[in-house]
Amino acid sequence: MVNQVQRGDGTLSSRSDSSAASASGGDSSKESSRCSTPVLDADRTDRLRYKMRRRMESGDHWFSLEFFPPRTASGAVNLISRFDRMGSGGPLFIDITWHPSGDPGSDKETSSMMIASTAVNYCGLESVLHLTCCNQSKDNISRHLSKAKHLGLKNIMALRGDPVGSDWEEEEEGFNYAVDLVKHIRSEFDDYFDICVAGYPTGHPEAHSYKEDLIYLKEKVAAGADFVITQLFFRAETFLKFEEDCRPSGSPCVCVQGYQSLRQLVKLSKLEVPEEITRVIEPIKDNDAAIRNYGIHQALEMCRVLLDSGRVPGLHFYTLNREVATMEVLRQLGMWQEDPRRPMPWAVSAHPKRKVEDVRPIFWGSRPKSYIYRTQDWDEFPNGRWGNSSSPAFGELNDYYLFYLKSKSSKDALLVFEVFTCYIAAQPNRKGHKVMCLPWNDEPLAPETNMLKDELEKVNTRGVLTINSQPNINGKPSTDPIVGWGPPGGYVFQKAYLEFFTSSENVNALLKVLKKYEPRVNYHIVNVHGRNLTNAPDMQPNAVTWGIFPGREIVQPTVVDPVSFMFWKDEAFALWIEQWAKLYEDESPSRMIIKYIHDNYFLVNLVDNDFPLDSCLWQVIEDMFELLQTGLDTGDEQATIFPY
Fold first, then answer.
1. How far is Cα 437 from Cα 445, in angstroms, rounded to an integer?
2. CA dist 447 → 167, 178, 424, 471 (Å)
3. Is-catalytic flag, 66?
4. Residue 49 · residue 226 · CB < 8 Å
5. SS3 state at 94
6. What pTM value is reported for the model?
7. Residues 478/488, Cβ–Cβ less than 8 Å
8. 259 contacts 285 by C-beta, under 8 angstroms
9. pLDDT tens for residues 559-611?
10. Which of the residues 31, 57, 66, 448 is marked catalytic?
């Protein structure tokens, strides 16, 4: 619901500044929770309440998704993966509930604060953090709000909260009503946070009357709330009457997933399930699939009535941390929009201080969450160009098992070359299991990388173990579904790039071959001990992705930076041990093979600067193998030319 509530005198009250709300221009109507193309953040015209207003003015319906913190660390890993999948459908925002018994404001991986922070910083999702008055002093609440602001959270859902026991106990040093929490947030943090409050279409269970509860809702709005999300309901007419009575708009929806989930929802919301629903559900209560199908049907019918009324701009879904039913409803409503366009070639963070960031080294292309983690303490982020920093302050990555960085790699070493090849080919290995990820790549091949699939498969079978690559692109439209990024009407460019691990024998041959490709090909070669060789002029960064857009300067979002590469190599080599070798027993053959590669192989990156021509990098690799074969055929030993 958007904050536009009727006062007692019949006028309308709205905190939104319409001039600021429309400042972002004509392409705003398709905004989602994904962070938009970075721009200067002088007046925060990107804030959630303005996004809502722009969508209302343009007539574009939106949806939002609610999640709760999981109980276990593995559940947190799964939930973050679900954020990535469900975020692709274009929710305007997500929200994370607050559970007083689960230490919600702590640094635990299962806390509400950390889950919401991860959604913003590592998944790039506009997020609303619930905050309740329950068992909290005023000082504790202020500390939670300060921490949320520091973590980049910009939106709070202010709630009284459910009592821990059967009855609410007075908070002597805290607040007993949501309206007091709203006032406190505005008093202590002024207008920094967008504030959401709860509305009850049938009245709060503890209110003396429905009309009295409407008065309380308007008090919360007058205290500084920006929009309202209502409690769930089972009939569309329930909400439409409520909307008519208080004149806000927006609507929550729940897709029944199973009998137990329905019972839990009813218990939490203190609502009665309509008799016509229980009559259908009772006979099939042991058949979750049947109940889910019925729930999808009911949700679709109700959502269509709400949207067709012209009085509901958005739907809020209680997902129960599941995705199938919610996604199916949204697809059938035509609201699930997987836009292939990307604001940047890499995953964008939604933290306010990173709003201007538009350049990153390419090395973390498949590990964006790790890059964000290692640069989280930066005060400023590159904008326009990377520059030539002699000592970028990348944080140490000592804990490879932080829940939002944890790899999904499976325990399956077999032959290492085969693992890489099966990953590239998306084919089953000899045990019949598909290799869907690697420690350096948590997801299957991106569509862009698929353009190189045949060549990548060939070189991996021969011991060039690729972990990052991109094709050369010469002036493709920015709307191209595979390589496009940025606003429409532009053109994008790329230099061919290849990054891989390979043996010292291959490296010695490669260095000989590379002499005939200079200066067209830039290279950087390093081992785990830091011995390295590069032909990068004066250790300068090399732009490998750039775009030209109407009315803007050239944007170069991806670079190959020799200094940053030395920080990346520590992480890249450590992944062999931290996320692969440790899956196996000490002294086991699999672990010994992986450790040998870690200790003896080199990490190589190659850039073909002549982007208008077909990439020469595959010929470079072929020449390397031919040189090695020539040496074997003649019986000559390869001289070691890499400096030790």
1. 9
2. 55, 47, 12, 11
3. yes
4. yes
5. strand
6. 0.78
7. yes
8. yes
9. 999 999 999 999 999 999 988 888 888 878 888 888 999 999 999 999 999 99
10. 66
